[in-house]
Design goal:
Elements: H1 6-27, E1 37-41, E2 45-50, E3 54-58, E4 65-67, E5 79-80, E6 85-88, E7 101-105, E8 112-115, E9 126-137, E10 140-149, E11 154-163, E12 170-176, E13 182-186, E14 189-196, E15 198-208, E16 213-221, E17 223-229, E18 232-242, E19 245-252, E20 257-264, E21 269-271, E22 274-281, E23 288-295, E24 305-310, E25 316-323, E26 326-332, E27 335-336, E28 349-350, E29 355-360, E30 393-396, E31 399-402, H2 414-436
Helix pairs in contact: 1-2
Length: 450
C-alpha cells in the first residue's frame, strides 16, 4: 500500500500537469471536460452511471431502465458484487458533494444515500477519520477508517460492515497500522492487505465472513489484490516496475506463488480466472489501444485475445467493467469536423456521445478494430495566437489531473492518486511512440491516440 508523502504527490502532480498542458498546447485540442462515466456488472445486467442519470441494462434483449437516485451521480468509479452496487465514499472521487457518503443499492431498486458509520471514541479509537478503502462483499459494504490510540501509541483501522438491504453498521475487526489497507472480496471471502515491516511488503489476511474466521495469514510484495477465484489471488505489484510497467503475479489464497502473469501499466480487471488488460497494439486488425482477455487457467503467458480497439478521437474508451464472461464498455465515437468548422484550438473531431456495449467473451468473436482517424485541414489558413491560460484542472481525454493549492492535503484517496499518475504515464508513453514516428514535436507532446 503505497502512501504518497505530501511533497512527493505535489511534485508528481505538478510534473504530470505540466507535461499534459504542453501536449494540449502543441496539439491545439479542445479543452472540454469529458463526461463522468462508470459501469458495474451484476449477475443480471450492467449498471451504467451516465454523467448524472443511472441506468440498468438487463442482459439479453432488455432495454435500458432508469434507476432512481436521490442525487445525480458524477463518478468514474463504481464497486459491484453479483447483486449490489456502490459509488462514492472516502475522500476520493465521490457521488455527492459530501465525500463521506455512499450511494448504494440492489438494482433495480432505487439507490439510497448513506453516511459513513459513526464510531464512538474509546481508548482504542480517538479522532476517528473515515478512510478511502471500501469493497462490496455480496450484499454487504465493508469500509475502513483510521483512528489513534494514545494509550497504545499507535494507529488502528476499524473495518465496518453494513448490509445494503438495510440495518446498521457493525464492527468486523480491527486492523493495526496507519497506511490505508488493500481490500478485495470474492463471495464470502475478504482479503485485507496492510503494509508490514516496510513499504515494500504487506501482510495479507484471508477472512471468511460467514464464519468470521481468519483462514490464512501470509506476506506478499506491496500491491493491489484481486480474487481470480476462491483459491487464487492476482497481485499487481506497486513497487516492482520497469519503464512504468508493473509485475503482475498469481498466488494461492495461502500465499503460495504460482505464476508470473506479465507486466502492465495499469492493474488488470480479474474475474473467474480471466484477466482484462488495456494495452497498445500494432498490426492487424488495426493499431490502437485494445481491451484484451487472458485465460489464467490455460496458457497464462500466451497471446491475449483482442476484444475491441480504441483510437481517440475516432473512438474513445470512457469506462469498462468485467465479470466473466461479460465485458461492459462505455465508449464514444467522435465525428470529423468539416474543414469550415476547424478553427484555433477546436480540434479535428466533434466529441461523441457515450454509449454502452456488452460483450459475451465466452464466444470468441473477432476483435473489433478502432475506426481510422481522419485528419482534417482547415478550409482557410489559421493565424492562432497563444492558447488561453490553463486553469488549475487540466483534462486529457477521459481523466483529470488536478492541482491543489495545498499539496500535502490533497483530498484524494491513495487509489485515486495512483490512478491519475498511471494514466499520465500512459499518455507520456504514447507521446514517446508518436515522437519516434515523426509526430508532433515539442515537450512531452502526445499523438491523437491520447
Amino acid at each position: 500500500m503505497l502512501k504518497f508523502p505530501g511533497s512527493w504527490a505535489c511534485a508528481i502532480f505538478a510534473c504530470a500537469a505540466l507535461c499534459l498542458a504542453t501536449a494540449e498546447r502543441s496539439l491545439a485540442i479542445p479543452r472540454l471536460q469529458p463526461p463522468n462515466q462508470a459501469v458495474a456488472i451484476l449477475s443480471g445486467g450492467a449498471v451504467w452511471f451516465d454523467d448524472g442519470p443511472v441506468f440498468l441494462k438487463p442482459f439479453g434483449a432488455g432495454n435500458l431502465r432508469r434507476i432512481h437516485s436521490p442525487t445525480p451521480v458524477l463518478t468514474r468509479e463504481a464497486e459491484s458484487s453479483t447483486g449490489a452496487v456502490a459509488v462514492g465514499g472516502g475522500s476520493g472521487e465521490s457521488a455527492e458533494a459530501d465525500h463521506h457518503r455512499f450511494l448504494i443499492g440492489v438494482p433495480p431498486a432505487a439507490l439510497r444515500s448513506i453516511p459513513y458509520p459513526p464510531l464512538s471514541e474509546s481508548a482504542k479509537c480517538e479522532n476517528w477519520e473515515p478512510g478511502g478503502a471500501h469493497v462490496l462483499a455480496g450484499e454487504g459494504l465493508i469500509v475502513a477508517g483510521k483512528c489513534f490510540s494514545s494509550a497504545e501509541g499507535r494507529y488502528w483501522q476499524p473495518l465496518l460492515l453494513r448490509s445494503l438491504r438495510g440495518g446498521h453498521w457493525h464492527l468486523l475487526r480491527w486492523v493495526a497500522g496507519e497506511s490505508e489497507p488493500i481490500l478485495a472480496a470474492e463471495g464470502p471471502l475478504l482479503a485485507v492487505g496492510v503494509q508490514h515491516l516496510s513499504v515494500e511488503q504487506m501482510r495479507v489476511s484471508i477472512i471468511n465472513l460467514r464464519s468470521d474466521r481468519v483462514q490464512a495469514h501470509f506476506t506478499l510484495p506491496d500491491g493491489k489484490l484481486s480474487f481470480a477465484s476462491p483459491s487464487r489471488l492476482v497481485l499487481f505489484s506497486e513497487r516492482e516496475s520497469k519503464a512504468g510497467q508493473h509485475r503482475t503475479l498469481l498466488y494461492s489464497t495461502d500465499g503460495r506463488r504460482i505464476a508470473e502473469l506479465g507486466t502492465f501499466y495499469e492493474a488488470p480487471l480479474v474475474s473467474h480466472m480471466h484477466l482484462i488488460t488495456e494495452e497498445a497494439h500494432e498490426g492487424p486488425p488495426g493499431e490502437g489501444e485494445y481491451l484484451s482477455v487472458r485465460n489464467l487457467a490455460g496458457d497464462r503467458s500466451g497471446t491475449p485475445r483482442l476484444v475491441i480497439g480504441f483510437h481517440s478521437p475516432a473512438r474513445r474508451l470512457e469506462a469498462f467493467s468485467f465479470r466473466w464472461p461479460v465485458l461492459a464498455v462505455v465508449e464514444s465515437e467522435g465525428s470529423p469536423r468539416l474543414p469550415s468548422e476547424i478553427h484555433c484550438y477546436s480540434g479535428e473531431y466533434n466529441p461523441g456521445t457515450p454509449s454502452l456495449r456488452i460483450f459475451d467473451l465466452a464466444h470468441g468473436k473477432p476483435a473489433q478494430p478502432p475506426p481510422a482517424v481522419v485528419h482534417v485541414q482547415a478550409s482557410e489558413p489559421l493565424n492562432c495566437g497563444p492558447p488561453p491560460p490553463l486553469p488549475p484542472s487540466r483534462v486529457l481525454n477521459s481523466w483529470t489531473v488536478s492541482l491543489r493549492d495545498d499539496c500535502p492535503d490533497l483530498a484524494e484517496s491513495r487509489e485515486s492518486v495512483k490512478r491519475h499518475i498511471s494514466r499520465a504515464q500512459k499518455a507520456l508513453r504514447l507521446g514517446d511512440i508518436a515522437e519516434q514516428r515523426g509526430g508532433h514535436g515539442g515537450g512531452c507532446s502526445v499523438s491523437n491516440k491520447c
